[in-house]
UniProtKB/TrEMBL annotation, chain A:
Known EC number: 2.5.1.87
Claim: Disulfide bond is one of the keywords in the record: no
Protein name as it appears in the record: ditrans,polycis-polyprenyl diphosphate synthase [(2E,6E)-farnesyldiphosphate specific]
Pfam families listed in its UniProt record: Prenyltransf
TrEMBL record, chain B:
Main location: endoplasmic reticulum
Organism: Calypte anna
Name by which UniProt lists this protein: Alkyl transferase
SUPFAM superfamilies xrefs: Undecaprenyl diphosphate synthase
A Pfam family hit: Prenyltransf
Reported cofactor(s): Mg(2+)
NCBIfam families cross-referenced by the UniProt entry: uppS (TIGR00055)
Upper classification of the organism: Eukaryota, Metazoa, Chordata, Craniata, Vertebrata
Amino acid sequence: GIFKRNNSRLMDEILKQQQELLGLDCSKYTVEFSNQDKADQVLNCQSTLKVLSPEDGKADIVKAAQNFCQLVAQQQRTHTDLDVNVLDNLLSSTNGFPDPDLVLKFGPVDSTLGFLPWHIRLTEIVSLPSHLNISYEDFFSALHHYAACEQRWGK
Amino acid sequence: MSWIREGELTIIERFCANIIKAGPMPKHVAFIMDGNRRYAQKCHVERQQGHSQGFDKLAQTLRWCLNLGIQEVTVYAFSIENFKRSKEEVDGLMELARQKFSRLLEEQENLKKHGVCIRVLGDLPLLPLDIQELIAQAVLATRNYNKCFLNVCFAYTSRHEISNAVREMAWGVEQGLLEPSDVSESLLEKCLYTNNSPDPDLLIRTSGEVRLSDFLLWQTSHSCLVFQSVLWPEYSFWNLCEAILRFQMNYSALQKARNSYLEERRRQEMEKDQAYVTKKLQQEGFASHGDSRRRQTLLQKCTAMKEERIQGFLQALEHKRADFFERLCTVSA
């Protein structure tokens, strides 16, 4: 989509705003784009930005399924080889990334609209009215909401 | 009937119901019935009591749904993650399940009268054998009823469900029933435990938590999500109405989003089919942009063959699943 095609413009805007908001501190917080081919980049930097679109949701699961079925057709795997962990590792849209802990959802629609269905199984979903002119206070209070959540993980 | 509370709505409730029904109504509602244990703590009773009250609330909520014309309900009764709880609590929940499923079988006449189809979704082999047998009996006894549908997710997580669906497709390839290129979003959906249900229109989670906890992650991608702070055993008719109102407010935006997603999916699957045909033409030595009539004919032929393969596979899958339940019933007979 639009974001994915305009990576450099997005990066310029991020750097500009970082300078405006953080002043001298901004060198402490490096931001890099995460690229599918360079998963190890993620480890070297403070903040990594990954831009996702609907094709990274269900379509990515289907792609992984198709790849696995191809291996089965070539008799390199059997169907019993596939479990939750194996499928998790076959997904490529979020290679090297941990599952999101928190989703900040902007806008009036009460739905995830297909966002990473596999990865958000334990994700806290905090809604904010809009990303336009969002204040730091609103953002911080969403983080605060997340910090107050109690995860029991089924126990 | 123990699973569905008898009774009609009060006058005030009926009045409200009529107002709400003037707008679009969800046909399928899913519930994460959270808060039984916190409720027990609040009321200073045993956890087991909390769960028992939770079941009573389920029965009452199902009655409200029927009164409102909501034909299908899916509930998250027991997650695979819940096996991590103390042996005492897990045994207590299994005992509750035993009681309730046994009771269900005693009330078969009532189920027939109301046309209730019960389905239990999950990794059932993880459960004690006697519970699997009770479940099999309940599912087989009600499988042809179609006035309303109750789906109970038991020993379930969404990731296990999705992995299972992929495994079934891989099994299909292994059996020679499917080609890897037949794998698609729509085929995967037909392999989920929920393949006989439309996606939920509305997902409600109680107790204030704002996460999905591995429940119907695939099926609720375009559902209206409503998080309510009330604890499940305290859920009221008004809480349900509130959730339905939220659904109504989101209705047109979600319809639009869902339709445009499905449209895009259809387009991509057609593109995939076209690419497959192009490859085939090239393999057979024809120019890929050549005779458009040949291309059309080949496309039709490939599509028809794919449809046939998929139907054959889905029938085999249906058979495998029915077989699983039938074998459990003969064990207990």
